[in-house]
Give the backbone structure.
Amino acid sequence: YGVCMCVYVCVCVCMCDVFAVEDGTATAVFLDLPSPWEAIPHAVRALSAAGGRICSFSPCVEQVQRSCTALRDQGFQEIQTFEGIERPYQLSRKRVFSWGRSTQYLVFFS
């Protein structure tokens, strides 16, 4: 897809002092951790001075609340949280339609 020169994927234990990228070089950081609020200060240091985005995936609202508080403490202002819900779909070449509603929640992301 031609993005190899501009996308760096790093899987690491980031509850330590640093991410595996240079400070100020990332345009986006995705966190999928048990305690994402602990990694947010490190994620902020990794972001470019021109700005960037942090996306955190959390399975419960308590984690979302703590992450949003940590983001506010780091100076973020436009914090949004969305809810992902599992819903089965049937796909065909001519149309896409849902099989019904689901009450099973998958993830919150902020």
